[in-house]
């Protein structure tokens, strides 16, 4: 066959080669009439008659005036027609059957399309670790590539099913359906991760109304595929096609399965991430310092700057416990737990709860610290906490403090004249040593004077002109001296501002500061000035 | 954080160099364990702190851990050449006496303290173990 188109140059031989050619051959004269056709061509084109114009197939009839290759279909087979122009003006059209080749090409293109779809799906699904977003992307991609409408259903321990639907107009809708999964054949199985039920086994007429988007029309076919997760089922994917569309082929169902595997993995990862995140968030929420205010005529202000390094978050805490039935004074605790991250967060929660429970013991700091130490000690690590406790009581215009440090930097007392002194307290850190000691300081604050509690995140903050110098005790004392006479909130903001400037853009641990201030208060004396009057709190 | 070794007949000596903090404390713990495992008969552990840089709270926690393990195994624990910064940290946290007292493995005042038996030590190191009523 390869040599045949070249032969006609020799003239007479052509007749022989047309008749014996292994493919359909049609010879047209210069006017487009059929001059000759072999048996194969006669069988293929039963209507063709020698001497009459070629009218079928139309694609060949249209192309006969120009001798360039054309192609098209005859019945269910595909042909390409290759022309050879003879010396006498006639054209020989060789019809080559390309059905198998075409179908291979079409299959290759389809396979490439499927691969591209799956790659795009993976990219789109992995772009988000948000479960809701993953469900939406899954529903949307399924509608764009696999079906007329799609629903993604989450497994749930509750009574209602979380559903994300993408309808035939590509509109996303999320809802919860209070129906048992058993109401849809195959759905309960898919949600438990059993293999998909072939679509031909599911009667679309049995689909309940909630499964079918509004205005969708009659459902022609329905596929339910499990979304296999990482070890556990991640949900189910329901694909719907309208009655006028073709039903799902086996290849389409297997593609849906491949897509479901990717979607399921992404949803499972998103779910795990969400769970982990919610654990961290819960812990962090517990760790967030309380909003402080004036209690019993004493100003309290706190400032907490968490480390920007998420893995370094977790060590510092403070609490202000107002007076209660069993504890007549306000108890302030500010502390720092060794280490970072989850373990530190857990330890912080433990020590805060223990302190809270021991509030009635607050009249004896040393005893309370010993009890906390005993409760915190454990044989499997030597993590410790350092903290400072302050029992606060208003006495007339002054504030009486009992301050006890347990291995923590001593609080600074800021006097009205700008003198800054360390409270004379010290003690052992909490949680490791079998026996601890502590020394409590008694301090009185006159109006406008402040007791400043802080964690070593302040003094150990690295920065300054060289970027690696510690802020240190002396700079803190100088900054504190500038806060003489300020309200508590202003003291905290000032110290935070100075340390922030020192740190610049550098890394730092948690920083916590807390100010206890005796309010200067306006004197609300009676008009004549003779009575004693009151002071605003 | 680097360590160098020197071992006497029954002593393991490690010289600590650099900062002992959140990032390096795990390594020190590992090295001390390895060093003690290699000298099965050792009854003394000396950490030379002359070249030691900054020690943060996790660093201190690690020193306490090493001290606790050494005591449990009947190994004497020493910190040599404590610099001013480390001394200040130990004093602030009330751990200086505890970490530098010779062979102080039991809480003073514990009933079993003087006997220094293995059982007494283990009991003292448990949270629920005997403890002084006050300190």
TrEMBL record, chain A:
Keywords: Hydrolase
Database matches in SUPFAM superfamilies: GAF domain-like, PP2C-like
Transmembrane annotation, as ranges: none
Domain GAF: 130-277
All copies of domain PPM-type phosphatase, residue ranges: 295-518
Gene Ontology molecular functions: phosphatase activity
Source organism superkingdom: Bacteria
InterPro entries with a match to the protein in the record: Bact_Sigma-Reg, GAF, GAF-like_dom_sf, PPM-type-like_dom_sf, PPM-type_phosphatase-like_dom
PANTHER family: STAGE II SPORULATION PROTEIN E, STAGE II SPORULATION PROTEIN E-RELATED
Protein's name in the database: Serine phosphatase RsbU (Regulator of sigma subunit)
Automatic annotation (TrEMBL), chain B:
Stored Pfam families: STAS_2
Transmembrane segments: none
STAS domain residues: 14-99
Compositionally biased intervals (Low complexity): 113-135
Region (Disordered): 102-135
Gene3D superfamilies, alphabetized: STAS domain
InterPro entries recorded: MlaB-like_STAS, STAS_dom, STAS_dom_sf
CDD domains with a match to the protein in the record: STAS_anti-anti-sigma_factors (cd07043)
Protein name, as recorded: Anti-anti-sigma factor
Organism: Streptomyces paradoxus
């Amino acid at each position: 066959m390869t040599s045949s188109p070249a032969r006609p140059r020799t003239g007479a031989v052509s007749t022989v080669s047309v008749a014996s050619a292994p493919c359909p051959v049609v010879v047209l004269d210069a006017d487009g009439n059929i001059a000759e056709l072999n048996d194969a061509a006669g069988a293929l084109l039963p209507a063709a008659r020698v001497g009459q114009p070629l009218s079928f197939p139309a694609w060949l009839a249209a192309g006969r005036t120009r001798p360039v290759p054309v192609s098209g279909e005859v019945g269910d087979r595909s042909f390409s027609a290759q022309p050879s122009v003879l010396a006498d003006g006639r054209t020989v059209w060789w019809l080559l059957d390309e059905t198998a080749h075409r179908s291979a090409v079409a299959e290759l293109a389809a396979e490439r399309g499927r691969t591209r779809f799956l790659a795009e799906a993976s990219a789109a699904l992995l772009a988000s670790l948000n479960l809701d977003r993953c469900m939406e992307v899954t529903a949307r991609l399924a509608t764009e590539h696999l079906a007329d409408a799609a629903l993604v259903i989450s497994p749930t321990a509750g009574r209602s099913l979380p559903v994300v639907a993408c309808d035939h107009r590509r509109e996303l809708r999320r809802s919860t359906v209070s129906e048992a999964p058993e109401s849809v054949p195959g759905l309960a199985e898919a949600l438990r991760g059993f293999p998909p039920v072939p679509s031909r086994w599911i009667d679309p007429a049995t689909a309940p109304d909630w499964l079918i988007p509004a205005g969708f029309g009659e459902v022609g076919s329905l596929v339910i595929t499990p979304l296999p997760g990482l070890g556990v089922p991640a949900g189910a994917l329901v694909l719907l096609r309208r009655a006028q569309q073709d039903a799902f082929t086996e290849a389409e169902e297997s593609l849906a399965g491949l897509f479901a595997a990717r979607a399921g993995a992404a949803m499972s990862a998103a779910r795990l991430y969400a769970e982990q995140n919610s654990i961290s968030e819960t812990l962090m929420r517990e760790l967030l310092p309380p909003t402080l205010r004036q209690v019993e005529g004493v100003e309290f202000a706190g400032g907490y700057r968490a480390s920007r390094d998420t893995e370094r978050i977790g060590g510092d805490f403070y609490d202000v416990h107002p007076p209660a039935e069993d504890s007549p004074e306000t108890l302030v605790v500010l502390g720092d737990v060794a280490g970072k991250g989850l373990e530190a967060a857990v330890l912080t929660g433990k020590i805060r709860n223990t302190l809270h429970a021991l509030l009635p013991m607050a009249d004896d700091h040393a005893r309370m610290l010993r009890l906390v130490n005993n409760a915190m000690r454990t044989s499997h690590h030597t993590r410790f906490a350092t903290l400072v406790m302050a029992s606060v009581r208003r006495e007339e215009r002054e504030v009486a403090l009992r301050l006890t440090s347990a291995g923590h930097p001593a609080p600074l007392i800021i006097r009205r004249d700008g003198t800054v002194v360390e409270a004379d307290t010290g003690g052992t850190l909490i949680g490791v040593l079998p026996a601890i000691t502590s020394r409590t300081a008694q301090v009185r604050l006159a109006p406008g004077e402040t007791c400043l509690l802080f964690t070593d995140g302040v003094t150990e903050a690295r920065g300054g002109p060289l970027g690696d110098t510690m802020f240190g005790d002396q700079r803190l004392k100088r900054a504190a001296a500038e806060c003489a006479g300020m309200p508590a909130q202003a003291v905290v903001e000032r110290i935070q501002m100075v340390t922030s400037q020192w740190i610049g853009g550098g890394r730092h641990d948690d920083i916590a500061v807390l100010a206890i201030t005796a309010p200067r208060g306006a004197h609300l004396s009676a008009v004549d000035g003779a009575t004693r009057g009151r002071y605003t709190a | 954080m680097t360590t160098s070794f020197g071992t006497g007949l029954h002593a393991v000596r490690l010289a600590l160099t650099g900062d002992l903090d959140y990032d390096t404390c795990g390594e020190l713990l590992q090295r001390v364990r390895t060093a003690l495992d290699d000298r099965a008969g050792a009854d003394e552990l000396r950490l030379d702190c002359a070249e030691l840089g900054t020690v943060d709270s996790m660093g201190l926690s690690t020193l306490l851990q090493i001290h606790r393990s050494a005591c449990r195994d009947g190994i004497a624990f020493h910190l040599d050449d404590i610099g001013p910064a480390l001394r200040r940290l130990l004093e602030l946290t009330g751990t200086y006496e505890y970490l530098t007292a010779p062979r102080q493995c039991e809480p003073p005042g514990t009933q079993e303290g003087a006997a220094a038996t293995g059982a007494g030590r283990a009991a003292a190191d448990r949270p629920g173990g005997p403890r002084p009523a006050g300190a």
